[in-house]
AcrR family transcriptional regulator
Amino acid sequence: MNPVNPGNPASDARPSRRELRRRELLADIGAAVRALTVAEGQPAVTMAAVAARLGVTAPALYRYAPQGRGGLLDLGCASVAHEVSAALRDHRASLGPDPLDQAVGICRAFRRWSLDHRAEFALLFAHPADHLNQLTLRSDDDTDGGVRAEVIEAVHDLAWVFEETMLRLWAARAFDVPADGTLPAALRTSLTGYRDEVLTRARAAGIAVDSIPVAAISLLLQCWVRVYGLISLETFGHLAHIGGDPEPLFESVLEELTRFAGAAPTRTPGPEATPEATATTTTAATPEA
């Protein structure tokens, strides 16, 4: 499945050797950016520093990141997004078949990963929203060496982890929501296209969901905004003023999700194994000057 457009048959075509090498190079650049960010912070990410890690000259990098430092940070963002997606999928697979357990479990796992990888979280989610919007709007422009497509694919891939999980939850436990006609017209209009796109991806992924009300999409998005909002505030240190452990507040949001799904609130878990993402240690393919 192609996370950007899983319903596109062209996406299943076998990539050429040249394309595979290009993807490998972009992944190596992203991994180098991530390593620099973790070790020294985002200000340390420069063309010269990344080139030194890869054993090439800075001008050689411009063949793969023509935008300069901004392109490097984009590739670092993509590297982290792919890693988190894989870690969450692995963790979800370990949680058993109950879609509610999976939905709650990956939210907990995402919080744990975020707190354990604060530099990577900032690299991924402190990306300016208007920049990512421009990437999406101009996704058919390949003059950037493939960076734009790489970032879009990675960000959509991460979003799909949560979307897929919530769709499977809806398919198993369709909960009561208001009629779509009761929603404000502007909200209904803004979410209808997104709902249709999600359903298209669901069919391509073999999820047995023929339809889902816009009101359910709105409710699930509100849950996600609260989950992500709390994780973001805690990860960036903006909940320190409450003077206590933020976990009970986070668990209260998850309990609300279980109530939506018609189940009893889940208990706060004790220490558990969490997905531990590790940096890739493969030998970097070297861009030729």
